[in-house]
Predict the 3D structure of the following.
Amino acid sequence: MEYRQKNVDRLDELMSTIQKTDSIPTLPKIISKITDLMEDDTFSVKYIGELMTKDLSLSARILKIVNSPFYGFSQRIYNLNHAIVLLGANVLKSIVISTSVFTAMKESMEGLWEHSLFCAFTAKYIAGTLNKDKKRLISNGNKKKYIIDGDLVFSAALLHDIGKVIIATTFKNDFKKVIDTAKYDNISLIDIEYKNFNTSHDYLGYALIKEWHLPPSIYFPIKYHHNLALADEFKVETAIINLADFLTKSLGIGFSGSPYVERLNGEVFEILGIDIDFIRNIIEEIYSFKEELYVFD
Ligand SMILES: [Fe+2]
Ligand SMILES: [Fe+2]
């Protein structure tokens, strides 16, 4: 608890330093215009589509994502407006945000993008599998089946480690040293972040995403993805991100700052109503999609 409180105390100070030094990841103009437009629930797909075609790499990435087997649409989608409608505002916004920050991030931490994208696809796949199982009650004790929004889970997973971008851009060389230590000593990045910077990426990611006006169903799972026990809202979504993160690291896909893999939190089984066979089956399915990861290259 002391750890959380310190994180809260440190946040205001850190945020003002970040704002002063301009090290917070900034959204390119066209992207911030698109995200502003998307804030409005009645956003015009046609207008956003027109704006996006001005950024060719962004449009290409969106089409690649929507056409990837992970996303699972049966027909090939060639039209950007169609992709915008299919993905919906939150997923689109998450892709737009991650595109801009992960380009900058590639220099600081190679592999984080692959880690985040694989985690997003895995999380969405887990959500879909749980939703399909009619007998499974995943409702924290209620009798009603809880339906998970796979798109929100996708977005939260895609952005779950975005706080590392803030740390990397704020502390530059120190962060590189921290990554080397984590790698060399095979220890968890979150512990070493806290030791060195007095804050950690889960909390910073939550603060940033909240500031960028994404919904609580995205920023709460980000806040608690390493502290499932503290989550009191969106516990199912947080457990999915925690499991997807664990699977991504265990399969060695991408790089998230440390080769160390924390033990899977036992609470995940209880919250999601799953067993080890469920995890075995998930691994078989997701592993075959590994090659599809390079959709942003
Ligand atoms: Fe994380
Ligand atoms: Fe992660």
Q: What stands out?
A: The domain at 2-296 is CATH 1.10.3210.10 (Hypothetical protein af1432). The radius of gyration is 18 Å. Residues 1-5 have pLDDT under 50 and may be disordered. The pocket of fe (ii) ion (ligand 1) is lined by residues 160-161, 201-202, 225-226 (CB under 6 Å).
